[in-house]
Amino acid sequence: MKTAVFWSLFFLSGVYTGSAFAFSLGGEKTVNLVDQNGERHQVATIVFDSAGKDITYSIDWHEEAFADHFLSMRPFKCFEGPDKYWCRVPYPYEIRRSVSKQDFTDLEYDLLFVWKGSNEYGVNLWNGIYYKLAEQDNQLVGTLHEMDMDKLGVPPEAGDLRPVGETDLEAGDPDSHWLPRLVIE
Questions:
Q1: Residue 64 pLDDT exceeds 90
Q2: Fewest CB within 10 A of the end CB: N or C in the chain?
Q3: Which 8-state DSSP code applies to residue 157?
Q4: What single-letter DSSP state applies at residue 2?
Q5: What pTM does this model have?
Q6: Cα–Cα distance, 57 to 28 (Å, whole number)
């Protein structure tokens, strides 16, 4: 009986992590955009640093994977596909670049894109791409959500480092997008 009580308390206490978060938030990882055929396109490297009390990160974009475009009177770095381009949108406001096993918001803000047709001249900010990250199979997997990036045209109120809310995101249809997933491994 004492053994059963011990194991019950052990599992409930959170000490056991066998089924808990398996992705390591430490060291160097690769960022891949994944197309509809499952092919991975490496576009960046992330270094997670858990030396302090917070887990911070830095991103090194693989610039050779992106082409320079001047769209809607602004320079963009775009990952070119046959029919669509995925253009990086640097988050324009203050960001901590800190994550936890429960909160990847800062990293999601650093992985913003806007898509455009390959034969279109400009870019429409209502074609924003936001990858919501979750741990899956020892990776961070970003599920495509659509958003109107015009929301980012107005600075958030002082102290609001998280202006994009759930109501600003709409789950994207993976069949209608060239790069429906993002994987960090």
A1: yes
A2: N
A3: P
A4: H
A5: 0.84
A6: 9
Evaluate if residue 17 carries a pLDDT over 60.
no
| SS3 (DSSP) at 104 | coil
Compute the distance between CA of residue 18 and CA of residue 137 in angstroms, rounded to an integer.
13
Q: Write the single-letter amino acid at 111.
A: L
For residues 62 and 160, give the distance between their C-alpha atoms in angstroms, rounded to a whole number.
30
DSSP one-letter code for 179: -
**DSSP state letters, 35-97:** -TT--EEEEEEEEEE-SSSSEEEEEEE-GGG-EEEEETTEEEEEEE-SSEEEEE----S----
Does residue 164 contact residue 130 with C-beta atoms inside 8 Å? Answer: yes
Distance CA 168, CA 113 (A): 15
CA 34 to chain CA centroid, nearest Å:
12
Task: For residue range 108-140, list pLDDT tens digits in order.
Answer: 999 999 999 999 888 888 999 999 999 998 999
Strand boundaries in 105-177, DSSP class E: 113-117, 128-136, 139-147, 170-171
Res 10 pLDDT > 70? no
pLDDT-based confidence at residue 98 (cuts at 50, 70, 90): very high
